[in-house]
Write a structure and sequence with these properties.
Layout: H1 2-8, E1 10-12, H2 19-22, E2 27-32, H3 33-39, E3 42-47, E4 52-57, H4 59-71, E5 78-80, H5 83-87, H6 89-104, H7 107-111, H8 120-126, H9 131-141, H10 156-168, E6 177-181, E7 190-195, E8 200-210, H11 231-248, E9 256-263, H12 271-282, E10 286-292, E11 305-309, H13 315-329, E12 332-336, H14 345-350, E13 355-356, E14 358-359, H15 383-401
Parallel strand pairs: 8-9, 8-10, 10-13, 11-12
Antiparallel strand pairs: 1-3, 2-4, 2-5, 3-4, 6-7, 7-9, 11-14
Helix pairs in contact: 3-4, 9-11, 9-15, 11-15, 13-15
């Protein structure tokens, strides 16, 4: 009955000619229905249950969507779809809705079950997370004029980070590989670091954050060459991953494979992560869980008060992260929602993987200076608050990387 009603909620408008999809600069995106209606465009399909729509937008409407997403507290707020997905908009929404239903079924299974026990060695490792080191890393990443995926040279910072990671990890006890990943949707590359698992290498734990930044001017229009330091969005989350890797050098090996990603083009529609997650789904990769870190520097609700996003995330993995927090970090989680496509976890969620995103605050208390030249380290930034997320990343790798924990 529920599935039948859900199917009835899908409205597919298939009478539009293919010319809609080929207009210069136009794109078809997956976004919240309210956002789609706010900016106009051609709604090709919509699902009332998830409040998500597939909408075709011209360049002006796409700029408006970016600006609208920022105004309501969504980092990107949309995912760009490829031609095949555009032609099957209703199927895309059906699959997205089914994923949310499937993952919700696991929630009651976890409510009375604790899988994680305290490990004194893990506590010793996270106690060494250094807020001053974190400040240095965030300051370095935000020192670039911009990290925009459409800039004239969008990979300077990507290549520099690759070099730096090799320097920082040269004395690591485990072998690792690091590679840049080219994309069809953007000239910017993603960066991937892999630590192969020793006993269960085909089981993969993913940790990621987007490395790009953006400066959205009036009406969401990006002016070429405009400064986009992106200290909070997202030098902060990117740096948490870096600092976590430094801490993990104290661990000799991991049973499961760990993959760290710094994604390209998130601000332009989850470009890098969408391609990566789709490739993993096509290859039937066994991803145990995905942690996304995006904006961790602004304690809008107070120090160590963390917004835990409940929409388009896995109830099971939220339970795991909550246990990690309760046992080790002792922060305070406050549930919040950010809508579809607010960050790269949505790319993984749409492909059926378990993903979670802890955020710097609840959405109405987040940093209002993102997507501008004002997104810098200032008196309102808190390295101690952001350092909490370094601990989450470190523990996510330790707990999931060296255990049998997986979704029921």
């Amino acid at each position: 009955m529920f599935i039948k009603s859900a199917a009835a909620a899908i409205l597919v408008l298939s009478s539009f000619a293919n010319a809609h999809f080929n207009a210069t600069g136009s794109q078809t995106v997956l976004t919240n229905l309210s956002s789609a209606k706010a900016v106009g465009g051609v709604i090709l399909s919509q699902d009332a249950l998830t409040d998500v729509a597939v909408v075709h937008l011209n360049p002006e409407q796409l700029n408006k969507l970016s600006a609208y997403g920022h105004s309501v507290g969504r980092c990107a707020g949309f995912e760009v779809l490829d031609t095949k997905e555009t032609a099957s908009a209703g199927i895309v929404l059906n699959q997205l809705r089914q994923t949310q239903m499937d993952q919700m079924v696991l929630s009651p299974m976890m409510s009375s079950e604790r899988q994680i026990v305290f490990n004194v060695a893990y506590k010793s490792i996270i106690d060494q997370a250094d807020a001053n080191n974190l400040r240095t890393t965030i300051a370095w990443l935000s020192s670039y004029p911009d990290r925009y995926n459409k800039s004239s040279n969008p990979n300077i910072h990507v290549n520099d980070l690759k070099t730096k990671l090799n320097e920082w990890l040269k004395d690591a006890p485990w072998k690792y590989t690091i590679e840049t990943i080219a994309h069809t949707s953007t000239k910017q590359n993603s960066l991937k670091l892999t630590i192969p698992g020793t006993t269960r290498p085909n089981e993969v734990v993913v940790l990621g954050g987007h490395l790009d930044s953006i400066n959205q001017g009036l009406f969401g229009i990006v002016t070429p060459g405009s400064k986009a330091p992106g200290a909070d969005d997202n030098a902060s989350g990117s740096s948490n991953l870096i600092e976590a890797l430094k801490l993990l050098k104290q661990v000799p090996s991991f049973e499961r494979t760990l993959e760290f990603y710094w994604y390209a083009g998130e601000e332009s529609g989850l470009l890098g992560s969408a391609e990566i997650a789709k490739a993993y789904k096509a290859a039937n990769k066994n991803v145990i869980g995905v942690l996304q870190l995006d904006m961790t520097l602004f304690p809008g609700d107070g120090e160590q008060v963390v917004g835990l996003m409940t929409d388009f995330t896995s109830p099971w993995l939220r339970s795991v992260l909550t246990q990690i927090n309760d046992i080790y970090v002792k922060g305070r989680f406050v549930e919040s929602q950010c809508g579809y496509g607010c960050s790269d976890h949505a790319s993984w969620n749409r492909q059926g993987y378990h993903a979670v995103i802890p955020f710097e605050a609840t959405m109405n208390k987040m940093n209002s200076n993102i997507h501008s030249a004002k997104d810098v380290i200032d008196s309102k930034s808190s390295m101690n608050h952001s350092n909490t997320f370094t601990k989450y990343a470190t523990l996510f790798a330790l707990v999931l990387g060296n255990s049998l924990i997986q979704a029921p």
